[in-house]
Amino acid sequence: MIQLTVNGVSHSLDIDPSTHLLYALREDLNLHGAKFGCGLGQCGACTVLVAGKPTFSCLMPVSALGKRPVRTIESLGTAERPGPLQKAFIEHQAAQCGYCIAGMIMRAQALLEANPHPTDAEIRKHMEPNLCRCGTHMRILAAIRAVSGTPAGTGKPATETVR
């Protein structure tokens, strides 16, 4: 029996300990936000937060989680009531096909929780492991900037004077 805490809820799953977290989320917990992209940890479509850190769930066996909590896109909001980051992605039309967006949002969420006002360079560096094949990277960056309050091309929050 594997014990997981996902989105604040404790679960006991009768699954093989080598099962990757992605499959436990999708098949056993019916959480379909994280997607299978490459299965190699190279695209980020499966990104979730494990103890606040962005993690490729396609590579993480559930036995390696220990007691660390997992958060998925479903913890941030719903279609009817999107969270701030989800809302910004919608407003900035950051999704074209949408396949990568849950992973992008979770990686961005981790960044903003650790650094509420990142510079453009910090956003780009943090988001680098996740790929968007549709090429909406500039809209994704704009959505993250909108939530952080950092205008494009600066490292200063919008509430500060930029000289």
Give average pLDDT, whole number.
91
Uncertain runs are 158-163
Oligomeric composition of the shown chains: single chain
Tell me, briefly, the overall form.
elongated
Cα-atom radius of gyration: 16 Å
Overall strand count: 5
In CATH, the architecture of the largest domain is: Orthogonal Bundle
CATH domain class of the largest domain: Mainly Alpha
Strand content: 5-15%
Please state how the strands of the largest beta sheet are arranged side by side.
4-3-5
Profile the largest sheet: 3 strands, antiparallel
C-alpha termini separation: 58 Å
Element string (H = helix, E = strand)? EEHEEEHHHH
CATH topology of the largest domain: DNA polymerase, domain 1
Number of domains: 2
Structural write-up:
The structure is a single chain. The chain has 163 residues and is an alpha+beta fold. The chain folds into 2 domains: 75 residues, Ubiquitin-like (UB roll) (Roll); 87 residues, [2Fe-2S]-binding domain (DNA polymerase, domain 1, Orthogonal Bundle). Helix content is 31%, strand content 12%. A 3-stranded antiparallel sheet has the order 4-3-5, covered by helices on one side. Helix 2 packs across helix 5. The longest helix has 14 residues.
